[in-house]
């Protein structure tokens, strides 16, 4: 913030405002880690864009800001893919504001730096980048997009996308930011204008689906509001800096003490009013997050006697589901966890596969009353439990009611409801069999290896005799089944012999074993995976090493640079954000 508002009071105020704006608290309440990562890294992205564009007259232009921007963009994109576009939006807001306040060349340089950073970040994130490019049309939720309903404009302006932001507290911050356009002069007015254009861009991103009056798949509203939060915080900082540095200009029409005290009081009251919401949310220390997670409630599922690998299907409002869901309809989605309620390792889910689409079709069939045997349809996916949460955790935020989904699950003949805490409906699949299993030869017909329709072949199957696989324990002859999307890289070996690989239930993996032996299942594509990871690590080390090398060069050049004359230093300090002035770069 010191680049935009040079004074220490202004920088501190801007940081405080950025911290008390409720957008990040709603991210905590909703469990949106991607939004929190973007919130943490966006100020660094903006500062690096300003330096790369040459807005800062006191900073010598070099490649180092661009390298830093690439690294920060890649880090943000890895956690939340749409974050890679944040730098572009910041630079575009600068370019639009240049129509009114100048700085066109610096804005263009910043935009070019943002484009380069996105492309270079895509290179650093290989092989993930290939997944992003290949599934963007079919699995938008994997890229961080979700269904967003209508949001009232007043809620957008108050940053209210969750429990935080209610009341009039946020209006105080907006008032303090608006004063920047009234009290700032010269370069400070230019930065106040840029800050407000950034805020308008952020508000527009959050409100865009509501402007169209339709539900659509787009970025989470917090993503846009984080941009707006940075713009508003910067504008408040400019207000303070203008009052501290330029209050004499305010006194041309009013007495200096009156002008200074009156406007400064308004700004302080506005920030103080905004702080009330932060203080109220901080009393419990949870900021709207649940008292505990559903993982505590469902811990019994992973502590039960070992009967084979299983999965839990979470279905309901995407806002309250754990981890990143698949979207299944306009109002609900689903996600799966393995061998229990899940942990942080499942935060970044894999792209959608054909078996995932089978689960989506099965859920839709139940909701449309086309089946009363959903458990049979889900059994090949290894789903033992079906969980329907109405809140994101005990004591947490409530999601949208799901009456159709609730009724559909209650009507299934092969799902047995279990007792659990309020806010979570839990069923056990009576047709479940292990995700990695051996079906004895006498019952192998229950696992069709030549089926063309996955749901039709599953609804008539009854695999009660399935036994869990153990790499060391011999199992009887029969059909080996693996509940993963069919891939020719999967292989099963018995006594050192590779079994013939076939499709089971049309989309899963099956092998026929003709004698009693142990079976080992593995994936042959691990070597390629490790090579790609090694290549990615090499690119990161290369980029970080280049960044440190440029820092050393810069430090060496600054040591050998002659000290500015005092009068010249004053000229620079008088306009720290004066960009694109004729003669600036050529001053000697």
Straight-line N-to-C gap: 28 Å
Overall residue-averaged pLDDT value: 82
Which blocks of ≥5 consecutive residues have pLDDT under 50? 250-255, 564-588
Structural class by secondary-structure content? alpha+beta
- Strand residues, percent: 5-15%
Question: How many strands in all?
Answer: 16
Q: Treating each run of at least 4 consecutive H or I residues as one helix, how many helices?
A: 22
Largest sheet: 6 strands, mixed
Strand order across the biggest sheet?
A: 4-5-3-6-8-7
Roughly how many Å is the radius of gyration? 29 Å
Shape: elongated
* Tally of discrete structural domains: 3
Query: What percentage of residues falls in helices of 4 or more residues?
Result: 40-55%
Keywords: Membrane, Transmembrane, Transmembrane helix
Structural summary, described in words:
There is one protein chain. With 588 residues, the protein is an alpha+beta fold. Helices cover 49% and strands 12% of the residues. It contains 22 helices and 16 strands. A hairpin with a 5-residue loop joins strand 7 (415-418) and strand 8 (424-429). Helix 3 crosses helix 5. Residues 558-588 are annotated as: Disordered.
């Amino acid at each position: 913030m010191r680049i935009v508002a040079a004074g220490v009071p202004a920088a501190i105020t801007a940081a405080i405002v950025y911290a008390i704006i409720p957008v990040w608290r709603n991210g905590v309440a909703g469990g949106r880690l991607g939004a929190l990562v973007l919130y943490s890294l966006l100020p660094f992205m903006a500062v690096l864009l300003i330096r790369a564009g040459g807005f800062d007259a006191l900073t010598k232009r070099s490649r180092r800001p661009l390298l830093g921007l690439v690294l920060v963009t890649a880090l943000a994109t890895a956690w939340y893919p749409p974050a890679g576009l944040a730098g572009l939006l910041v630079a575009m807001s600068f370019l639009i504001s240049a129509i009114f306040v100048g700085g066109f060349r610096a804005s263009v340089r910043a935009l070019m730096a943002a484009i380069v950073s996105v492309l270079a970040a895509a290179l650093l994130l290989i092989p993930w980048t290939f997944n992003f490019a290949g599934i963007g049309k079919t699995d938008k939720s994997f890229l961080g997009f979700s269904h967003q309903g209508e949001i009232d404009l007043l809620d957008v302006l108050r940053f209210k996308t969750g429990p935080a932001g209610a009341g009039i507290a946020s209006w105080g911050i907006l008032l303090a930011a608006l004063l920047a356009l009234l009290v700032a002069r010269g370069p400070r007015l230019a930065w106040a204008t840029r800050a407000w254009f950034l805020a308008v861009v952020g508000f527009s991103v959050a409100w865009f689906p509501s402007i169209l009056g339709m539900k659509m798949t787009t970025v989470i509203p917090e993503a846009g509001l984080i941009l707006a939060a940075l713009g508003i915080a910067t504008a408040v900082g400019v207000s303070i800096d203008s009052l501290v540095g330029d209050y004499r200009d305010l006194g041309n029409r009013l007495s200096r003490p009156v002008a200074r005290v009156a406007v400064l009081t308004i700004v302080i009251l506005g920030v103080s009013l905004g702080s009330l919401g932060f203080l109220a949310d901080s009393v419990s220390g949870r900021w709207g997050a649940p008292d505990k997670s559903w993982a505590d409630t469902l811990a019994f599922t992973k502590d039960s006697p070992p009967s084979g690998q299983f999965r839990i299907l979470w279905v309901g409002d995407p806002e309250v589901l754990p981890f990143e869901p698949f979207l299944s309809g306009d109002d609900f989605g689903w996600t799966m966890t393995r061998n229990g309620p899940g942990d942080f390792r499942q935060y970044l889910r894999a792209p959608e596969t054909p078996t995932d689409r089978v689960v989506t079709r099965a859920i839709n069939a139940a909701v449309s009353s086309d089946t009363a045997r959903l458990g049979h349809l889900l059994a090949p996916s290894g789903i033992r439990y079906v969980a329907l949460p109405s809140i994101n955790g005990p004591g947490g935020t409530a999601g949208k009611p799901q009456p159709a989904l609730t009724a559909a699950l209650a009507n299934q003949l092969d799902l047995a409801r279990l007792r659990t805490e309020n806010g979570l409906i839990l069923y056990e699949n009576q047709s479940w069999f292990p995700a990695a299993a051996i079906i004895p030869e006498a019952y192998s017909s229950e696992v069709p290896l030549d089926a063309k329709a996955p749901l039709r072949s599953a609804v008539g199957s009854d695999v009660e005799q399935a036994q869990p696989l153990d790499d060391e324990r011999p199992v009887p002859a029969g059909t080996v089944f693996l509940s993963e999307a069919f891939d020719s890289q999967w292989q099963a070996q018995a006594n050192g012999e590779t079994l013939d690989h076939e499709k089971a239930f049309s989309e899963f993996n099956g092998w026929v074993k003709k004698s009693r032996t142990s079976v080992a299942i593995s994936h042959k594509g691990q070597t390629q995976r490790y090579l790609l990871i090694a290549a990615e690590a090499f690119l990161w080390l290369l980029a970080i090493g280049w960044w440190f090398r440029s820092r050393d060069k810069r430090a060496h050049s600054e040591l050998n640079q002659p000290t500015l004359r005092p009068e010249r230093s004053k000229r620079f300090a008088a306009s720290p954000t004066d960009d694109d002035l004729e003669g600036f770069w050529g001053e000697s």
